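Quick one:
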Amino acid sequence: MSNYQMIPIYLVVGLVVIIIKGFFWIWATNTILENKGYKENWSIFAFFFGFIAFVFACTEPDVVIEQKKPALTRTIRKARYAKLVPSGFWSCKCGKRYSSNTPSCSCGIYKYEAKRENSETRRNEARVAQEYAEFLRQSKLIRLLEKAEHDNIQRVKEYKSLLDTGAMTIDEFEKRKRVLLDL
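Output:
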């Protein structure tokens, strides 16, 4: 075979190698982006530019997902805002304030409706604050119980070392262990 007859074979082999390299860079670039939290697809960029696209993907910052603020924070913010309404004025749920002789808001809410909604909102905010406070008390109690359990296990280990050294009898050890572990 002459060199001219081998040209189509070289072209096909070269094209296959280029396609395989392109798919490798697509996979590598999109994996990096996925691990960083991006939902974008850089396949075309990665296929044609390979290593350059991979480097750009590596230099992209991680996506930071904002955590939702707890309901109590919003409740406190609303309560502070509601306290700023001076006497002789009323506040609509849209946030506008009017003097007490204005019967309705420009958004269409009447004064008596806004006052009723504000009182219901305050009751709901108070309920949410109480639930959150109860949640904090319970989580603190759980932490205290876990700490006490850990402390009791440490004491049993200390008693075991005293038993091993002969400073305590087996009956004393069993009695103290039952008391500490509530057996």
